[in-house]
Design a protein that fits this description.
The protein is mainly alpha-helical. The protein contains 11 helices and no strands. The chain has 2 domains: about 100 residues, Rna Polymerase Sigma Factor, Chain: A (Orthogonal Bundle); about 150 residues, no CATH class. Keywords: Coiled coil.
Length: about 290
């Protein structure tokens, strides 16, 4: 160990005013750089050692003033600061590595997925049910159920068929779109939470691989991982059940009628379609 001048002696000179704090800090920093082999950390990697000392510098600066000559020497005090600091730094490195891996893995899997709106492929004209088979209320509710796929021109035609003002029908559609916007924001927030929870689970998994199963903290970390994973599965189920199409409850809300009325009307439409041998209306939700 290259120790030409004791740090304790230099600290005494600082206390006597013969060295400025900045000078003493610089000497301590250079002393640690020159003697990095002594500490046996970071597998002898001097670049990591310098990075660590740069991170530790504010703590070393505080140590200059916080040291009190009560038993241990200033050299021992600085060595203790370095040893405890290196443990904390390695833990931070492990956390960063685990988080970085989790983000990379999640991003790789996310890139393989594509969120798409449901496609409306249209219906074969030969299987279409005649509008005369439905009441005006049934047509209105069926239209609102599929409002997301209709054009302004088609909206005008439906309004004319139902003897409604176009603006009146358009207002109903706009109300559903406002509800959809709120739902989209809620789903987007839920997706972010699912992603964050996924990263959290992967981080726990990565940490468990670096800890001995016999250690005291392994069981605690395992329990935290299991709780986090259970929460992740629960959030995934909620996200899978989230829908953007107009729900029966939303339609009932904009029409100011009971939800049970909407349920009943759509049930009647589905049954009528089945009796006609038409199965292209199965997308009509029961919810």
């Amino acid at each position: 160990m290259r120790d030409t001048v004791s740090l304790s002696v230099l600290q005494q000179q600082y206390r006597l005013g013969r060295l400025s704090k900045k000078e003493l800090e610089g000497i301590i920093f250079q002393y640690l750089i020159d003697n990095f082999e002594y500490y046996h950390v970071f597998d002898g990697n001097q670049e990591r050692w310098v990075d660590f000392l740069s991170w530790l510098y504010p703590r070393l600066s505080r140590a200059v003033d916080s040291y009190r000559d009560k038993g241990s020497s200033f050299d021992a005090y600085i060595n203790a600061v370095v040893q405890w600091g290196s443990r904390e730094y390695r833990m931070k490195e492990a956390d960063h590595s685990a988080t970085e891996y989790a983000c990379w893995r999640a991003r790789a899997e996310e890139m393989a997925l594509h969120d798409t709106e449901p496609e409306y492929g249209g219906m074969a004209t030969e299987t279409l049910l005649s509008p005369e088979e439905f009441s005006d209320r049934q047509i209105l509710i069926l239209f609102l159920k599929s409002y997301y796929f209709v054009s302004d021109d088609f909206l005008g035609k439906v309004a004319k068929f139902l003897a409604m003002e176009k603006q009146e029908l358009k207002t109903l559609v706009e109300e559903l779109r406002i509800l959809r916007d709120k739902r989209e924001k809620a789903i987007a927030k839920l997706k972010d939470n699912v992603h964050s929870q996924y990263y959290r689970c992967l981080t726990f998994q990565k940490k468990l691989l670096t800890i001995s199963p016999e250690s005291n903290c392994y069981e605690k970390l395992q329990n935290r991982f299991e709780r986090a994973h259970a929460h992740f599965i629960s959030m995934q189920k909620r996200l899978a059940g989230a829908r953007l199409d107009a729900s029966n409850r939303q339609i009932a809300k904009v029409l100011h009628i009971p939800k049970g009325t909407v349920d009943s009307i759509l049930y009647t439409i589905r049954e009528k379609a089945k009796l006609s041998g038409f199965d292209g209306i199965g997308w009509v939700s029961k919810n």
